[in-house]
Q: What sequence folds into this?
């Protein structure tokens, strides 16, 4: 949802890279879980992907509250 | 508005999900009362499940309600993507309507008779629609 909101509201320059990072980490997470499935690596991949999502969500929130001035 | 025809099946599937939500409660709450289930007991162990307490026909509604939040997530994402880039009309809208038709049929089969092979066939057909929509979105965005 943050991603589709950012597509509508106009992303920050970093956001497209964060979205690609998210997808790359999720694919790595799938491959790891479906093959080796050692937990610390899976946890790390998941945590990194969620970090991407958190930044995107914060950016979307800032864009959505575009009228609010942080001076 | 041009290119957003696929938003109609999106809205219909969301509405159908809410119908299943009501149907689930309409069958499950009376069944829980009849079985004298204390809801707070269910959370006292990870293995405790209404699947072991309530009749299967009652739980089928709940299972389908859960399923409507699994595979359709991809449909919603790709349908909104197509609408956003003006590609949600024509064949893509038709695929969206077929998808929703298959998912409604899938729900009805699961909660009424639950014949697994029929369910599986309907699910496969619905997934084929998502394959087509995803390919169309990929072509439009990457070509």
A:
């Amino acid at each position: 949802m943050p991603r589709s909101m950012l597509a509508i509201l106009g992303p920050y320059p970093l956001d497209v890279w964060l979205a690609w990072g998210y997808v790359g980490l999720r694919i790595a997470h799938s491959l790891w879980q479906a093959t080796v499935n050692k937990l610390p690596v899976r946890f790390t991949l998941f945590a990194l992907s969620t970090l991407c999502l958190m930044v995107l969500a914060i950016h979307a929130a800032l864009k959505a509250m575009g009228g609010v001035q942080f001076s | 508005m041009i290119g957003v025809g696929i938003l109609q099946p999106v809205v219909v599937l969301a509405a159908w999900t809410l119908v299943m939500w009501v149907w689930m409660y309409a069958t499950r709450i009376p069944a829980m009362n009849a079985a004298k289930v204390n809801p707070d007991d269910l959370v006292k162990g990870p293995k405790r499940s209404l699947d072991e307490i309530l009749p299967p026909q009652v739980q089928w509604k709940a299972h389908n309600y859960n399923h409507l939040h699994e595979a359709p997530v991809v449909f919603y994402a790709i349908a909104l993507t197509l609408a956003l880039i003006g590609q949600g009309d024509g064949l893509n809208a038709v695929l969206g309507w077929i998808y929703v038709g298959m998912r409604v049929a899938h729900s009805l089969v699961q909660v009424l008779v639950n014949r697994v092979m029929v369910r599986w066939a309907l699910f496969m057909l619905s997934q084929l629609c998502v394959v087509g929509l995803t390919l169309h979105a990929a072509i439009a965005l990457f070509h």
